[in-house]
């Protein structure tokens, strides 16, 4: 039987009270201290029945304790990224209508008007003298994560406790145990942070959040300084390490597992990792927020990873209990990826129309999530090719923007954003230290990889490619920069 995530955490705290659970604020917090903090905050939250809890805190003891406390008292949580614009945070609060907002004085002030009926809780004022006792109750829901919607309005993905429990059960394959130090690199409003939080705290590891901006910009140095053994992030973090020339065996010597999710992993990333650490375990996973973080996995080794590399690294096989298939392609080996299984989200918060549009019955009658990701099956592997809405027509020809970006990468420029501009394509290419960029030379090189109509009409170099609040490449911001500077 799959265990509940809160029960897993309480079991770890009971069995290993003195083991480190969290490295935060320059100090080590053990499991008994974390549980005490959870129960102190839970005592306040329990005054509301089945509370819907918005957590507006930076990565910290109180943030993680609030998240666990919400689940302990029979509620569910919505963490937000405090680096996001205040206007976006207010839209989330207004859409969610939380029963409780746990935050700092500043964040509570920012969100007060957006959610006037919510109980406002300044986490720093909660003491540990009155503690919630027992193991609490279990709400049907685990969390609601708000992602960026295509209209600019945040889109709330509602994830059940059953879905999260199924995913965390699979996280046992990470073999996290006492002595492991698990990174927490994504912001709290990005769902892959749940991998770190529950992966560490449900299995006895110590969670190590990147609390400072300088750590986020130099993650390899953070790994070395804190002795991180399990690193989980989007592949963009590896791009940062490569750019800073800090992806070295000395900096990465403590790592035993790299796990990636959230965007395509590239061969260039694996080349750099295995060059520094040929013995390290690397895993690529795939999964939209709507399928509870990730639902495939592919183990990669220094000896054989090139067999799983095309324009990006293969997404791997479904984890136990989950499945996928391709629909709408010219043949069975290509099409939109449709996911089925117990990790599917309940739908979108307050938007039944959008929910019905993408969560619907498959050909065999199962409930499926239609991802909008176009995939291709080649030589035993499935590869991400393009978002369906990133396919454009240029002079009557259908062009996949990511295919053009992959061609640019094959010409030696690993970070590029491609977009349609008028009746042609344009691209922004990130600078490589010590390498000269020549637009004409790159166009000629691209002619050996893609058709003439797919070669961008303009290619412009940028010092640092724009990334969004979840550290993914921001295509729209790159296009705006192009219009202002090209």
Major β-sheet profile: 5 strands, mixed
The share of residues in extended strands comes to 25-35%
Q: Architecture of the largest domain, according to CATH?
A: 3-Layer(aba) Sandwich
Give the mean pLDDT: 93
| Percent of residues in helices | 25-40%
The counted number of beta strands is: 26
Please give the radius of gyration in angstroms.
23 Å
Low-confidence stretches: none
Total of helices: 15
User: Order of strands across the biggest sheet?
Assistant: 11-12-13-14-15
Structurally, the number of domains stands at: 2
**Structural shape:** globular
Based on secondary structure, the structural category is: alpha/beta
- Measure the end-to-end span: 58 Å
- What is the CATH class designation of the largest domain? Alpha Beta
CATH topology of the largest domain: Rossmann fold
